[in-house]
Amino acid sequence: MLRFTSCQAEIAESFCRALAAFIGDKLAIPSEFVSDIPWQERERLLDRGDIHVGWICGLPYIRKNNSERKTVELLAAPVMTHPRYGGRPIYYSDVVVCADSDIRSFEDLRGRTWAYNEPGSHSGYNLTRHHLAKGGSGAGYFGRVVEAGSHQDCIRMLLEHAIDAAAIDSTVLEMAFRENPLIAERIRTIAVLGPSPAPPWVAHSSVSSNVQRALRRELLSVHKDPPGRRILEEAGILRFAPVSDQDYDPIRAMERVAASVEWFLPPSP
Prior knowledge:
By secondary structure, the chain is of the alpha/beta class. It folds into two domains: 2-81 and 199-247, D-Maltodextrin-Binding Protein, domain 2, CATH 3.40.190.10; 90-196, D-Maltodextrin-Binding Protein, domain 2, CATH 3.40.190. It is 38% helix and 23% strand. The strands form two sheets. It has a six-stranded mixed β-sheet, with helices on both faces. It has a five-stranded mixed β-sheet with strand order 7-6-8-5-9, with helices on both faces. It is globular, with a radius of gyration of 19 Å.
């Protein structure tokens, strides 16, 4: 039995479930997609090897695969269909505000209310800290910072005018626009952070090398099979691409810079 999961945005779960079933069928191995527990518990099960294959953010990937330990092996990363990605396994973090907001640039966000999805996220958390650190800013830049819990919660809070801005994974934002085109009319992008290496699909290190090779082979060829291609197209994905550990060095470098910024602290009185 191969157990799959996703620690990515909830909006992508139907895609992940379909892909897991497709790959299980191709490999003639019984498969299960784990989705009835919080993503944090799914990640813990992946760390223990109780879940075998997962789609995770690049930031937790580099933390799971450092010089001291190695718990997961890279399989492949998605190449999105939109021309902005240039046929490469990359993505962006789109800084968004309400369409009717008076905010026109990132500089206008000083003193405003900012939301991030959760601190294990590269696109919603790490990239913002990196951007502030590079600009020489940090503690007190935002008037208030809120942990929303997910990208979709950030979008909801923005539409409710509970926050002023957030950084959203560009692929999640595109999925949200496809699911509800009216959202695109109510949200405006004021800055783009990145690009960054795309979130990878990984296998736990306990998965046999033969099965890892088979998983990698099926992911890299799924776009060549008509049913597989339809699964990808519904998620805005063109194909999967091979990736190496070195491809995620930019995230390692950004995290080192970001760690110098305590950007969530309120301004001193």
